[in-house]
Amino acid sequence: MRIKNSKNKILAAFLPLLVVAASLLTSCGEMDFVDPNGPSLEQTTVQTLVTGIEASMRTEYAIYIRDVSVIGREAYYFEPADPRYTGTLMGKDGTQIDPSGFLVNRPWSARYRVIRNCNFLIQQGNAGAKGFAKTIEAYQFLLNLNLTWENGIKIDVAGDKPGPFVSKDKALTYIASLLDEAKQDLEKAGSKFSFELSSGFAGFNTPADFIKFNRALRARVAIYQKDYNTAITALGESFLDTTAPLTKGVYFVYGTGVGDQLNPVYEVPNASSIKFMVHPSFISDADSGDARVAAKTFKRSEPTTFDGLTSQYAQTVSASSTEPFPIIRNEELILLRAEANVGLGNYSAAEKDVNFIRNAAGLGNVSLNANNALDEVLKQKRYSLFLEGYRWIDMRLYNKLDELPIDRPGDVVHKQMPKPTDEL
């Protein structure tokens, strides 16, 4: 996947756009740019592209999180101005998702815009920039594949005419190879990047540390491939650490500046009217005393009913409109290791990680065996990673979508989203 246009044409067409995109992150933290009075063309372009890519990664992510959280029965999204969130997404009366609608097209298109910008960055020829760009490309491809799954994605987007859709398995193979290529580039990048990253990459802003983020994503992909040995290897090279905070990781950052973006899930939990409501099953299915429930939900004085759906709980996953939102963090990695070990039949190793997470949530130990291990891992992922975008994907991966609750007679749980009409 490479852009065939000359570098000069790329810069002339896209640098002004990326300068605007780069400005979106300036309120999120200090960004050190090159001297505007005498920069080289390459320096200016690399930093602008990197900062613009970070900014654009957040675009339409709010819709993505609503999509996967509502379909996965983690939450309701009560939007009176657009009942598709409680109708189409929840399969009301068997309704299928519109392939031309915004629920599909807006997050899908936003991810491919980031991928294009990553391709422009690759053309600058810097090993560190290539490693960064390929890692982010892989992540963006994976987000779109999470939506369409067996309907596939397009991986050849070079030039003016993108290639055909490829299968889920081929897409995962490509994403894995892109991450492996990125790791090789990062290993050649020296001790420092030639550009600055935002505070969302604090602790991962050198090539060596960025590799740990790359390997974390690689482990996630390997789990989706059910390649458990590769997942274990990748996790060993990641930032998984049971002595570190569970929150350690890489994050989207937000700000209130002009043109910036806000945290995609935050709402004032006791406001008179809110939209992101907790699915009641998240409360009823929880183990007694699970501290994650108290930390991530708020019981409102009165229940809210909309479109035949009722919840009394607001979500409190984020504490403010500018709180960073996770891309991947230590708690997920520990549970991915447990998941991989369950896949390999190493129940004692999985049990150790599961109980580590349970104990951190104030719960006692459990014993794992072939009959209960997978369900226990999925339950801990459900409560640890609530509204971070994984419940629907996890249940689909193990053919458990029929275990998700049906809220109204006639509702269906969608397996995947259709191919966007514009791509056909």
Summarize the structure.
With 424 residues, the protein is mainly alpha-helical. Helices cover 46% and strands 8% of the residues. It has helices at residues 7-23, 41-57, 61-71, 102-122, 127-148, 168-187, 207-224, 228-236, 280-284, 291-296, 330-343, 347-360, 373-384, 391-397, and strands spanning 75-77, 153-154, 165-166, 249-252, 276-278, 297-306, 309-315, 325-329.
Description:
- With 424 residues, this protein is mainly alpha-helical.
- It has two domains: 7-261 and 322-423, Alpha Horseshoe (Serine Threonine Protein Phosphatase 5, Tetratricopeptide repeat), CATH 1.25.40; 276-315, no CATH class.
- It has helices at residues 7-23, 41-57, 61-71, 102-122, 127-148, 168-187, 207-224, 228-236, 280-284, 291-296, 330-343, 347-360, 373-384, 391-397, and strands spanning 75-77, 153-154, 165-166, 249-252, 276-278, 297-306, 309-315, 325-329.
- A two-stranded antiparallel ribbon has the order 1-5.
- Helix 7 (207-224) runs antiparallel to helix 8 (228-236) and helix 12 (347-360) packs parallel to helix 13.
- The radius of gyration is 21 Å and the shape is globular.
